[in-house]
Specification:
- The chain is built from 16 helices and 17 strands.
- It is of the alpha/beta class.
- The protein folds into three domains: 64 residues, Arc Repressor Mutant, subunit A; 124 residues, Aspartate Aminotransferase, domain 1 (Alpha-Beta Complex); 223 residues, Type I PLP-dependent aspartate aminotransferase-like (Major domain) (Aspartate Aminotransferase, domain 2).
- The protein has a seven-stranded mixed beta sheet with strand order 4-12-11-10-9-5-6, with helices on both faces. A four-stranded antiparallel beta sheet has the order 13-14-17-16.
- The longest helix is centred in the last third of the chain and has 23 residues.
- The two termini are 34 Å apart.
């Protein structure tokens, strides 16, 4: 355990925040290093002469900033860019927040009418069968429908025999990692990436190798260089809408990245979570290199997150492994969820919901660009979030903290970083789909604009 003392604390700030700021300072200057264990709540409280509650609040604040991680029964540790990730915990911790643009909530007020769906399903004579056990890979008729849906909506040609039904994209990613890789294997990712891949890599003892990226995502030449000097087993990418930067890979970029993977026998984990929000869709890398590609498609972002339903398309040689991984985690995805998804696909509800959410996202992006005009803003016309590069006088964590003080939550760069090298620009992700209404969104964006117009000193 690190014997750490924050030193003299300023008297003009709340104690919990002053302690959190001291931890941030010592992480930045190298006094505290990734993996260092901080004093227990009681030890630090006794040392500073404060309550245990104050230390609890301080550690919660450093966790929110991505500086620390708590391990049940073990203590609080200094994190690193590769193991910090946002969680849904702050939804309870910040109920007084005026505008939450940290968690990427997919316009839930536009979700399908579940009561109407249940009314229709209740008239079916076979509904009771949705409570029975099904094969772990899913019923054939659901996989057959999946093949049609993936071809029409994702431009992916896949056989029903190579498709497995999962409980959403996160579950698909979990079973793919557990079945296709071994502890100690290395997966190449963009320098900034979806935080869940970091969480799962840590859980399965996988190493993430950061690859440089540009406005189209992972750079094939940089992946090639990395493969020349490192043993890399696979790549993870989001070609259709990168989270958090909004980068979209062109057809040429997908081809060249797949060619590198093919030359070096790398498996491709392709997360297509946001593809259906794009009006112009391209063939996935997995469609170009089917013997390498694990394609993840989910209903969570384009339709509704509560259904927990998705499709995982895999190379033929991995079908059995993935099926066993599904069985090991929960035996099968919910047949009732599959029944609802089937209903929505066949009666047009899924498509109409996606269209409504695209239209609302377009309105929100127009509002965002108007208010943040002149800023370095990366966005997709019908996307759920934007990536805001900050002026030089801001760090991402400081900007997020100041916004939070004004009751607006955004997610700083630290949550997405892999490795120690930082990009040229500090940035925050703003989830414009989070606020329930346009007035709420406008208020939050104006708070952000005011912060940008008043540089930190």
């Amino acid at each position: 355990m690190t014997i750490w003392n924050p030193g003299v604390l300023p008297s003009d700030a709340p104690l919990y925040r002053a302690i959190a700021d001291a931890i941030a300072r010592d992480v930045k200057n190298g006094r505290l290093k990734p993996g260092d264990q901080l004093p227990t709540h009681r030890e630090l409280a006794d040392l500073l002469g404060v309550t245990v509650g104050t230390i609890t609040r301080s550690y919660a604040e450093t966790s929110r900033r991505g500086l620390t991680r708590g391990e049940t029964g073990r203590g609080t540790y200094i994190g690193s860019a590769s193991n910090s990730e946002p969680t849904f915990e702050h939804l309870e911790d910040s109920t007084d927040a005026a505008v939450d643009m940290g968690i990427n909530i997919p316009l839930s007020f536009l979700d399908p009418d579940l009561s109407e769906t249940f009314r229709k399903l209740s008239l079916r004579t076979d509904l009771q069968s949705a409570l029975r056990y099904y094969p772990s890979r899913g019923a054939f008729h659901d996989r057959e429908l999946a093949a049609s849906w993936l071809m029409e909506q994702h431009r992916l040609e896949a056989s029903p025999d190579n498709i497995l039904i999962t409980s959403g994209g996160q579950h698909a990613l979990t079973v793919a990692l557990s079945a296709a890789f071994r502890p100690g294997d290395t997966i190449a990712v963009e320098r900034t990436t979806y935080p869940m891949i970091k969480t799962l890599a840590r859980r399965f003892n996988l190493r993430l190798f950061p690859i440089a990226m540009d406005d189209e995502g992972m750079i094939p030449e940089c992946l090639e260089e990395a493969c020349a000097i490192n043993k890399i087993h696979g790549i993870y990418c989001m070609p259709s809408a990168h989270n958090p930067t909004t980068a979209i890979m062109s057809g040429d970029r997908r081809l060249r990245l797949g060619q590198v993977a093919d030359r070096h026998h790398l498996l491709i984990l392709e997360d297509d979570a946001y593809a259906l929000l794009n009006e112009h869709r391209l063939t996935p890398i997995s469609g170009l290199f089917p013997s390498l590609g694990f394609h993840i498609a989910s209903f969570s972002k384009p339709v509704t997150p509560g259904l927990r339903f998705g499709y995982l398309s895999v190379p033929e040689s991995y079908v059995k492994r993935i099926e066993h991984a599904i069985a090991d985690t929960q035996w099968m995805a919910s047949p009732l969820s599959a029944r609802i998804a089937r209903e929505w696909i066949l009666d047009g509800t899924a498509i109409s919901t996606i269209s409504r959410k695209q239209q609302e996202a377009r309105r929100r992006n127009l509002l965002c660009r108007s208010i943040l005009d002149g800023q370095m803003l990366h966005s997709i016309d019908t996307g759920y979030f934007v990536w805001l590069e900050l002026p030089e006088d801001w760090t991402a964590s400081d900007f997020a903290r100041e916004a939070s003080e004004k009751k607006v939550i955004v997610t700083p760069l630290e949550h997405y970083l892999v490795g120690r090298d930082r990009p040229d620009h500090e940035a925050v992700r703003i989830a414009i789909s989070g606020p329930e209404s346009l007035p709420q969104l406008e208020h939050g964006l104006r708070v952000i604009r005011n912060l940008l117009d008043e540089p930190e000193f």
